[in-house]
């Protein structure tokens, strides 16, 4: 299943910020103050420890993108903003799930994890903790196929993304 | 040189050329107040921290230099929130220093601790909690740089007590002064895009019904002279928004006055019927545009602003130009000259005659009072404006309400930086402290605050500051005994159901109150008394003066574009309502 052919339903902004106290709060409160919905947000230091990168996903509806970018750029600690076209970037999320996996379910869950190239992280008598790293669509699919078995706990990270390289193979 | 953080803070302010701080001390900021005794910087001790903030704003409005306020933590910091929001809305350069509890107590709900940086995050251009005494000079240098460059605005610096307290080893630092600022994310664009400026010139050259829509950005950019050159070269009329009053002389033949909800009929209608709006440092505020859908439907838009976020925020410009207004206008004038100057402008005589027709038919007007009746506020303003003892370059400050609109309408602003006002936030209680700040910044000028009785009661106590500090401002209260502007809306839109707007004309007794605060107090009830009272007030220069003008509460501000209406639905004065438009 590929999202490449569809109109994007979200904008992904990759925001390089100074690695200083309170910068994430500034960015998040700007979104709140201007009434933009954050779908997902992930932040971590970059290779240069003076800077962090925040990946923000906003849905297309709530978001006059140009205004968001301009308003964000007014924050003194924001150094650079790039919009990542979902069609032109690689996007990743990580899912961790503990699912019911007793009796015959166990084999089915194992099979699912295998098909999706996920990992088994932890196995108990009646439950199993699995992980999957992949593009958000794949992670969505995995989650919905796992759900019928009974999800006990689920955690997904925010999305991170980088632009696709020119002429990748 | 070894210093403690408090000394370094004051020294940093000296390095920035600060001549005055408006403030009030308290526990958390105490160590910073100690070195003030040895500093040449003047400190004005306010009676309420809101006053300190508005004084800093008033100072900045008239001098163009950043105003500085300093207060302690907790309740003092929350008291200065309103001025911060006000300065943010009106792009006023200001640096506010707040004390904070000691670093170890931050986050513990300690006595007088509030999350000042959190509270003020969305109403400052930037704010910062300093965590290390050694950072103080750098942070102060950056604060002034940020406050005064690009689109100006307020910057707040929050300083924990331990890093300024000489008895605490954490406050020890080696003095330095950073020669440059290193802010990798902050690079305001000042020079406009040449090709866009050329496009703008071409668009101007093709337009038959252009209007220059000048905003407060003209004043911030020191672009009043450039604006005048542009207007005169092209012969294009100019509207000056509430924030821009004085940026273009009202006595100029191309001046149309203020647009918007209570603008002049001609300014509103000329914008509405224009085929080109040249928006310079103006932000298409809803009070100017009226209902956005119907605003200036035929107009193409050239929009010049130093803040890229303003371009397209409200109305998409045909020619967007990011840059400093002065630099862009100067370049635009150059291009227009190259293209043939005044001669190459199209024939706009038809437009000019329509404009002068509106001006003739719909001047500002009011019914003078009959003998024995209360004063008309407009009359008071005309008398004040035209009094031979009132200097022509008098600085005028207003509160918020009907008196504010009448002042903007009836004063004649012929000089930039003579009008100080709370435009974006509309802060009642702005005028008295802002007037004090303005007078501190321009002691050579006569400063008149025109206030409403409601507004006056919010911050009048700062007249104690003015009296104690010998800052001789003059205050005219247009006392209509009501929260007048609200009353006007209730009269027009709530079937005269006057809910909670009556204040009483005699409570308090303003004359006695003024005198109790160390001012000269006067009360004026009839038209004949007005000139003498003004003359007396203008002659007093050693203390503040307050005149309680008893005005007619029934008077309403016209023209008016009702909220939610388009600018084509402007309601004119009742005496003009039969006129053909
Ligand atoms: C701090 C604050 N509170 C409330 C308002 C809403 N408001 C706007 S104008 C006004 C009435 C002002 O009355 P007054 O100062 O007597 O002036 P007038 O309109 O009578 O000239 C009010 C309550 C405001 N702008 N600011």
Automatic annotation (TrEMBL), chain A:
One of its GO terms (biological process) is L-valine biosynthetic process. It comes from the Bacteria. GO terms for cellular component: cytosol. Its EC number is 2.2.1.6. GO terms for molecular function: acetolactate synthase activity; acetolactate synthase regulator activity. It holds the Pfam family ALS_ss_C. Keywords: Amino-acid biosynthesis, Branched-chain amino acid biosynthesis, Transferase. Residues 12-86 form the ACT domain. InterPro entries: Acetalactate_synth_ssu, Acetolactate_synth/TF_NikR_C, Acetolactate_synth_ssu_C, ACT-like_dom_sf, ACT_dom, AHAS_ACT, AHAS_small-like_ACT. It catalyses: 2 pyruvate + H(+) = (2S)-2-acetolactate + CO2. Dimer of large and small chains. Belongs to the acetolactate synthase small subunit family. Catalyzes the conversion of 2 pyruvate molecules into acetolactate in the first common step of the biosynthetic pathway of the branched-amino acids such as leucine, isoleucine, and valine. This is Acetolactate synthase small subunit.
TrEMBL record, chain B:
InterPro entries: Acetolactate_synth_lsu, AHAS_TPP, DHS-like_NAD/FAD-binding_dom, THDP-binding, Thiamin_PyroP_enz_cen_dom, Thiamin_PyroP_enz_TPP-bd_dom, TPP-bd_CS, TPP_enz. Gene3D superfamilies: 3.40.50.970, TPP-binding domain. Its cofactor is thiamine diphosphate; Mg(2+). Signal peptide: none annotated. GO terms for molecular function: acetolactate synthase activity; flavin adenine dinucleotide binding; magnesium ion binding; thiamine pyrophosphate binding. It catalyses: 2 pyruvate + H(+) = (2S)-2-acetolactate + CO2. Its EC number is 2.2.1.6. Binds 1 thiamine pyrophosphate per subunit. Pfam families: TPP_enzyme_C (PF02775), TPP_enzyme_M (PF00205), TPP_enzyme_N (PF02776). Coiled coil: none annotated. Belongs to the TPP enzyme family. This is Acetolactate synthase. It comes from Actinomarinicola tropica. The lineage of its organism: Bacteria, Bacillati, Actinomycetota, Acidimicrobiia, Acidimicrobiales.
């Amino acid at each position: 299943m590929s999202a490449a052919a569809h109109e994007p339903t979200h904008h992904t902004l990759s925001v390089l910020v100074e690695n200083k106290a309170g910068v994430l709060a500034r960015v998040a409160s700007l979104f709140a103050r201007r009434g933009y919905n954050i779908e997902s947000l992930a932040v971590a230091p970059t290779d240069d420890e003076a800077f962090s990168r925040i990946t923000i996903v906003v849905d297309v509806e709530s978001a006059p993108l140009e205004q968001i970018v301009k308003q964000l750029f007014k924050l003194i600690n924001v150094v650079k903003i790039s919009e990542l076209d979902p069609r032109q970037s690689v996007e990743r999320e990580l899912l961790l799930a503990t699912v019911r996996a007793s009796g015959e379910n166990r084999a089915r869950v194992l099979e699912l994890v295998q098909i999706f190239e996920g990992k088994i992280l932890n196995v108990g008598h009646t439950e199993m903790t699995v992980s999957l790293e992949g593009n958000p669509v794949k992670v969505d699919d995995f989650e919905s196929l796992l759900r019928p078995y009974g999800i006990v706990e689920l955690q997904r990270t925010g999305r991170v993304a980088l632009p696709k390289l020119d002429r990748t193979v | 040189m070894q210093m403690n953080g408090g000394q370094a803070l004051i020294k940093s302010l000296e390095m920035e050329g600060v001549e005055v701080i408006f403030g009030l001390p308290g526990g958390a900021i105490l160590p910073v107040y100690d070195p003030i005794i040895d500093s040449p910087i003047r400190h004005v001790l306010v009676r309420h921290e809101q006053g300190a903030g508005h004084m800093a704003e008033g100072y900045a409005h008239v001098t163009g230099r950043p105003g500085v306020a300093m207060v302690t933590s907790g309740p003092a910091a929350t008291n200065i929130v309103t001025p911060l929001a006000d300065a943010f809305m009106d792009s006023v350069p200001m640096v506010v220093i707040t004390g904070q509890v000691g670093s170890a107590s931050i986050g513990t709900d300690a006595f007088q601790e509030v999350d000042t940086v959190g509270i003020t995050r969305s109403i400052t251009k930037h704010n910062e909690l300093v965590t290390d005494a050694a950072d103080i000079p750098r942070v102060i240098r950056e604060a002034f740089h940020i406050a005064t460059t690009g689109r100006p605005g307020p910057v707040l610096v929050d300083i924990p007590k331990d890093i300024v307290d000489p008895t605490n080893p954490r406050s020890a630092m080696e003095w330095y002064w950073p020669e440059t600022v290193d802010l990798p994310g902050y690079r305001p664009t000042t020079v406009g895009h040449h090709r866009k400026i050329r496009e703008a010139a071409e668009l101007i050259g093709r337009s038959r019904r252009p209007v220059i829509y000048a905003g407060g950005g003209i004043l911030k950019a020191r672009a009043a002279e450039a604006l005048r050159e542009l207007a005169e070269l092209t012969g294009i009329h100019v509207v000056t928004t509430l924030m821009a009053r004085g940026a273009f002389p009202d006595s100029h033949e191309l001046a149309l006055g203020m647009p918007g909800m209570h603008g002049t009929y001609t300014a509103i209608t000329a914008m509405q019927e224009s085929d080109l709006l040249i928006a310079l440092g103006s932000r298409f505020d809803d009070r100017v545009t009226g209902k956005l859908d119907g605003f200036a439907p035929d107009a193409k838009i050239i929009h010049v602003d130093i803040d890229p976020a303003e371009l397209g925020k409200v109305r998409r410009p045909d020619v967007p130009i990011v840059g400093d207004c002065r630099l862009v206008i100067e370049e635009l004038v150059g291009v227009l000259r190259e293209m043939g100057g005044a001669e190459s402008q199209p024939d706009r005589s038809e437009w000019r005659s329509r404009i002068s027709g509106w001006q003739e038919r719909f001047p500002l007007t009011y019914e003078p009072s009959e003998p024995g009746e209360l004063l008309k506020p407009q009359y008071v303003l005309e008398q004040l404006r035209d009094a031979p003892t009132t200097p022509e370059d008098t600085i005028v400050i207003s509160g918020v309400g009907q008196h504010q609109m009448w002042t903007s309408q009836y004063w004649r602003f012929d000089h930039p930086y003579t009008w100080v006002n709370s435009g974006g936030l509309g802060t009642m209680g702005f005028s008295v402290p802002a007037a004090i700040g303005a007078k501190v910044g321009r002691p050579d000028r006569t400063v008149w605050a025109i206030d409403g009785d409601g507004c006056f009661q919010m911050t009048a106590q700062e007249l104690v500051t003015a009296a104690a500090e010998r800052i001789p401002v003059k205050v005219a209260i247009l006392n209509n005994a009501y929260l007048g502007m609200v009353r006007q809306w209730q009269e027009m839109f709530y079937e005269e159901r006057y809910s909670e707007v009556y204040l009483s004309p005699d409570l308090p007794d303003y004359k006695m109150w003024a005198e109790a605060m160390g001012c000269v107090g006067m009360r004026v009830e009839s038209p004949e008394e007005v000139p003498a009272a003004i003359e007396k007030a203008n002659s007093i220069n050693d203390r503040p003066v307050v005149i309680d003008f008893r005005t007619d509460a029934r008077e309403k501000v016209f023209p008016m574009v009702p909220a939610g209406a388009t600018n084509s639905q402007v309601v004119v004065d009742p005496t003009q309502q039969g006129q053909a438009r």
